[in-house]
Write a structure and sequence with these properties.
The structure is a homodimer.
Chain A (H helix, E strand, L loop, with lengths): L2 E8 L5 H4 L1 E7 L6 E11 L1 H8 L10 E2 L5 E7 L11 E4 L10 E5 L3 E4 L5 H5 L4 H11 L8 E4 L5 H12 L3 E6 L5 H11 L3 E4 H6 L13 E4 L3 H9 L6 E4 L8 E3 L1 H5 L4 E4 L2 H7 L4 H15 L8 E5 L3 H9 L8 E5 L3
Parallel strand pairs in A: 9-10, 9-12, 10-11, 12-13, 13-15, 16-17
Antiparallel strand pairs in A: 1-2, 1-4, 3-5, 3-7, 3-17, 5-6, 6-8
Helix pairs in contact in A: 4-5
Chain lengths: ~350, ~350
């Protein structure tokens, strides 16, 4: 078999609309441990855009195909491939594989099988946001059921995942979002996902939720905004709490007050999924994480973030929309390569 | 036996010169587990001043005697006292004991014996600065001989202790200080204590010490300044380095850059000796620490910070001098109660 792959490639850093090109290329049958896949769907994540702009610490080898996540269907396997077979759905098991393409040849060990019964959008977005949320909730503080987590950017991809995992794990979660015209609709959406409370940045400044004892003081705060918002979620932390930064949408740094560091023993940490994956690629913890996430997705206890499917040909509009500030906290754009 | 104790007491918060009063009081013979001591020397630490000002999280019960450190001589022991005897030198084993006094009645378990051969200034200042330096060097990063530590406020009491401990433990240490008229004298002093290099804040900004490989990139940065200085020492850290704040002389917070948190995995932490002591009061680690520090002091491998002995009656001048900004990074004032 040979297929014609249509790929979004770039050979220099720049704005995606300027440097991405839709390129056609013939792919031959897979050899040895190779697997030929047909990509069904691949999301556009903020880090993908930053990589193309040259603003991300991961530097691809040119020419490079954009994208890091996808769900794909196995079309054909090489002679030495043992664990994958035709028709099976797979997701990337490594990073930097270039997923914005209709077809690709990967090595068997770069792929992880997932149940074909998992929703397209859920499978296509499983390796970044849900894993980031999972690790941040597990690895910094040992939380017991009933404890509370606070986060800003609650409607980001990770934010939506955090609320769902907290619900599954019997943790309370308070989400902070910016005020907006449809604030009640957004609050309802996040509460439906599992948020215990959703507050605007303004409401957070005067809330008595924690002081009154309605909710236990959080020992974990998650931050993807920085600046004042990061300070405000940090102020709610109990002594010895951990403040974890995984993004910086406001482009402002995290301010760590001296008294919070010394007298409250607050730790200011950061989390980067790419690093964790590199350091734990073949770990038992990673297998356990994917098994648990897939299970939750199959049970419909975990859904993909709010998203829109976009045909590959409309990639320019989609990258512009994803670049938009609102794109970073709102809708996820997923390239749909099924036809 | 009964003695007349002269104590520096305060019954309200305010500037030490306004609220401290020299009070005379008769102390009777010690009962049961009590120990009557004659205080030989007691330093004036920044935290002591902040406590009197009401700016410190530790709130004493009024009327309170100032001071938290001292070296004292046992004058008389109560009937049930087992481990201490007349003539022995002791230091506080707890905090908030009120040491700015000529005599005091303490409980046996509030005191720790130290060798009478340890220098007066060394023994009087053992429980705060050397312990802070010791714990910060031990508890955040497992450092191996040859590794490097960077710190600002290198001429503070803790800073001088850090350089000496690093030398004893075969760690390299780079100290950062503010530029000043006698900068070369200060650099010599700190190098003599054990600093591998001493740089001014300005020199740090353009140094190639670490980039060139002359010194290994530090995995531990100690900060008692905050603001730009905290940022600059943090910038030198290797990936996964830890930035520990134990003071904030500039009154500016620590700025944690989003990229440092996420991509370099730098952790911003704080350390407070008072908390550590409460949490580890009777721990093996604490005994080990004091044994090691006393041993270094006996061997003259660890000396007290630059200091001046001041008679108790001159306490007003001494607290003013200690309050002075330079006091926080320069000379330590020690009340001398021997006559």
């Amino acid at each position: 078999m040979s297929v014609c792959a249509k790929s979004l490639k770039f050979s220099e850093y720049g704005e995606p609309t300027d440097v991405l090109q839709l390129v056609e290329e013939k792919l031959d049958s897979p050899k040895d441990k190779q697997v030929l896949v047909r990509i069904l769907a691949a999301p556009i994540n903020p880090a993908d855009i930053n990589t193309i702009q040259g603003k991300y610490p991961v530097k691809p080898k040119f020419p490079a195909i954009g994208g890091n996540e996808c769900v794909a269907e196995v079309l054909e396997v090489g002679a030495s491939v043992q664990k994958l077979q035709k028709g099976q759905h797979v997701v990337p098991f490594a990073t930097g594989m270039g997923t914005w393409t209709t077809h690709a040849l990967y090595n068997e060990d770069q792929l992880m099988p997932v149940s074909n019964n998992i929703g397209l959008a859920e499978a296509a977005t499983i390796t970044v946001n849900p894993c980031t949320a999972y690790r941040m909730l597990k690895d910094f503080v040992k939380l017991s059921p009933g404890e509370c987590v606070i986060q800003n950017g609650a409607n980001s991809g990770v934010g939506q995942a955090v609320h769902q995992l907290c619900k599954s794990w019997n943790l309370k979660s308070v989400g902070i979002v910016r005020d907006r015209p449809d604030i009640n609709g957004l609050k309802d959406h996040l509460r439906n996902l599992g948020a215990t409370e959703v507050l605007t940045e303004e409401e957070l400044r005067t809330t008595t939720l924690f002081k009154s004892g309605s909710l236990p003081k959080p020992r974990l705060a998650l931050n993807c905004v920085g600046g004042k918002s990061a300070t405000e979620v940090g102020r709610q932390l109990a002594d010895k709490g951990v403040h974890v930064t995984y993004g910086g949408m406001s482009r402002e740094p995290v301010i760590a007050a001296t008294a919070a560091l010394i007298f409250k023993d607050i730790a200011f940490r950061g989390f980067w999924m790419t690093r964790w994956t590199k350091e734990n690629a073949l770990s038992e913890e990673r297998m356990q994480m994917f098994a648990e996430l897939c299970d939750l997705m199959l049970q419909k206890k975990f859904v993909a973030p709010v998203h829109e499917l976009v045909p590959l040909e409309k990639f320019k509009e989609a990258t512009v929309a994803a670049l938009n500030f609102k794109g970073f906290t709102g809708k996820k754009y997923i390239l749909d390569m099924r036809n």
